[in-house]
Amino acid sequence: MAFDGDLGRSLTTTGGTIMSFMEETQAAIAPARLVRGDETWAQVMNDVAEWAFGGRPHDPRMPPTWGVDFSRVYGVEVDEPGGPVLAAVSSAWSFDIPVPGGRVPAGGLTWVSVRPGYRRRGFLRAMIAAHFQDCAERGEPMSMLCAAELPLYGRFGYGVASQSVSVRIPSGAALRPIPAADAVHVHFDTATFADHDALVQDVRKQAGRSRAARPGWTELVTIGAREQRLTNTDTHLRETERLRVAVARRDGRPTGFALFRRDGKVQANMTESVTAVEEFVATDPASAHALWQSLIGMDLTAAVTVDNEPLDGWLFSLLLNWRAAKPLVCDAIHTRLIDLPAALAARRYAAPVDLVLEVTDPLLPTNTGTWRLHGNRDHAEVTAAPGARPDIVGDIAAFSAAYLGGTGLAVLEDAGQIRETTPDALELLDTALHSYRAPALATDF
Ligand SMILES: CC(C)(COP(=O)(O)OP(=O)(O)OC[C@H]1O[C@@H](n2cnc3c(N)ncnc32)[C@H](O)[C@@H]1OP(=O)(O)O)[C@@H](O)C(=O)NCCC(=O)NCCS
After folding, report:
1. How far apart, in whole angstroms, are the C-alpha atoms of residue 367 and residue 370?
2. How far is CA 201 from the centre of its chain?
3. CATH number of the 340-433 domain
């Protein structure tokens, strides 16, 4: 798993000089420059992000950058007549995520923002190069992100590793009965950091480490991020009630929770109130049933909404008529292998696999080459195999998309991103990569 931090040389040439991705992107933005951030950037980072994303102003009583890990903040500075301007920022979370058969450290790229007026000058590209370098130096063989726009990140070698579903469940919708749900008790409360942080963090951890853990399951990694999740801002309170929590317990032990807010809307004496679930975590199907039942059965609400449900989430096993919930599918986790051999060796395989993979990675050429993957349910090994005849040939985005075991190789083959040179090799690798449960995010970031 160790990575020596040397991302090697890219084949890109500028004026005859061979440059790394990092060098190339920095040269391309000159005289603007890539700079590292620190705590003093809190206000200006928030300003750049507000310009980038629009929306309501930040509540001035709240810290501007909840929980951001300043050791991972980068920006691009531009000299203007009035002095230097911070034109772009990005940060990352240090995740430790489940993958099939193990756990892997991963850099979660976030806060990617470029001020209008400074776009399409290569600032995002420069920050991505810095992020890749940062992940490599920290020994993270993988980067992941949630994309504001789907087409943005493929050019940097990211692939879509999971899909999520948004639903609007009509109030009172019927659930398939689960007898074990009767032993689960649900209690409602107003959510506060002081009262609920330890509890929700404990349930998140249980869910991310149980047999039913999903690859890619992110936990909130800083106290600031956890605090933000359990805090009401002015913006929230202008639109909804305070943050509420439903806690599921079995024999007194917490086994799930849902964080939600209702908007209390009434039109012509008819309730149109929607319960928006912001985070839903259950450690077993019976707890999920008890929580959904208590939310869907709440009086004076028209519907319950939730985003980020996995395609094979328990909600869809339980809802008898899930078509009525108008499911809408979206891309969720985007992954990018920074150190392909280390990442492939860090997971386990659902079926025995012994194949030679030829990988192309124009940005991080240490991944480019021919690798022998030998693995099964208990063991995996990846060795360089220069000169060996490949069974499968593909680009880094394809291997990145398939890594968590939720994106089938057929889709990537059909898109021309991966191909086999040995008959049935793709089907064999697909079976080996498959994850029993689809990858999913605990929360987007
Ligand atoms: C999206 C954003 C970060 C791009 O930053 P940028 O500095 O303009 O991007 P770059 O100049 O480095 O462009 C890199 C590549 O992405 C492409 N690109 C940039 N923005 C794009 C967009 N919105 N849609 C499609 N492609 C885009 C560029 O054309 C360029 O392509 P190339 O590699 O083929 O030359 C910036 O426009 C922004 O802040 N948008 C609003 C906030 C946002 O969406 N953030 C992303 C959160 S995940």
Report:
1. 9
2. 18
3. 3.30.1050.10
Express as a percent the part of the chain with pLDDT over 90.
89
Report how far apart, in Å, the C-alpha atoms of 216 and of each of 42, 98, 109, 143 are: 28, 6, 14, 11
Distance 388 CA to ligand 1 centre (A): 38
Is 153 among the catalytic positions? yes
Task: Report the alpha-carbon distance of residue 308 to residue 166 in Å, rounded.
Answer: 6
Question: Could you confirm whether domain 165-331 is CATH 3.40.630.30?
Answer: yes
CA distance 392 to 381: 17
Nearest Cα residue to atom 34 of ligand 1: 155
Pairing of strands 328-331, 163-170: antiparallel
| Domain 13-160 -> CATH class | alpha beta
Instruction: State the closest ligand 1 atom to the C-alpha of 147, by its place in the atom list counted from 1.
Output: 48
CB atoms within 10 A of CB 7: 23
For residue range 129-151, list pLDDT tens digits in order.
999 999 999 999 999 999 999 99
Residue whose entry in the numeric block shows the structure tokens 């995740």: 95
- Between the CA of residue 314 and those of 45, 280, 284, 287, 438, what are the distances in Å? 38, 11, 9, 10, 11
Q: Give the burial string for 295-329 (b: 16+ CB within 10 Å, else e).
A: bbebeebbbbbbbbbbbebbbeebbeebeebebee
Residue nearest to atom 5 of ligand 1 (CA): 124
Active-site choice (153, 260, 399, 403): 153
Tokens of 306: 């939730």
- Residue 381, classed as helix, strand or coil, is strand
Bridge-based pairing of strands 369-375 and 303-310 is unpaired
Whether the per-residue pLDDT at 27 is higher than 90: the answer is yes
Query: Which spans in 241-375 are helix H?
Result: 285-296, 314-318, 340-346
CB 260 within 8 A of CB 278: yes
Domain parsing of the chain, residue ranges: 13-160, 165-331, 340-433
108 pLDDT higher than 50? yes
6 band by pLDDT with thresholds 50, 70 and 90: very low
Task: Say whether 399 is catalytic.
Answer: no
Which pLDDT score, from 0 to 100, does residue 11 have? 45
pTM for the full model? 0.94
385 touches 359 (CB < 8 A): no
